[in-house]
Amino acid sequence: QFISGLKTLVFLARYNKIKGIVTCILFVSFAREVDKFDSDLYLLIVSDNKDESKAKAEHLAHELLRRFSITLTPMILSSRELETKRQKRFIKEALSEGKTIVGPPIS
Q1: Among 59, 29, 32, CA closest to 41
Q2: Environment class of residue 26 by beta-carbon count within 10 Å: exposed (0-12), middle (13-18) or buried (19+)?
Q3: How far apart are CA 37 and CA 24, in angstroms?
Q4: How confident is the model over 32-73, as pLDDT tens digits?
Q5: What contacts 5, CB < 8 A, 6 or more positions away?
Q6: Got the DSSP string for 49-63?
């Protein structure tokens, strides 16, 4: 289920033309490959078009839950917001332990 859900996520992010997405980072338990049945899928989405990214992420969350029983919890930030929030634990964890699945890695 997880692999199918992840492939769907990557497909939608890359091929549904979510305009403005700079990077998507998968993190928390799935990023650490601790795939528990009740694990949520966490994404840090860095986007220059937050409104469209939010709408697409909400649609994707619905589809992943419906098709694969996977809960998607996205955090959508602009590049500027990422820089101002970089020291928050949540962001630090995403950047240090997450896996970039779309776009260039963020250092």
Answers
A1: 29
A2: buried
A3: 23
A4: 445 554 557 788 889 888 888 888 888 878 887 888 787 888
A5: 41, 64, 67, 68, 70
A6: -HHHHHHHHHHHHHH
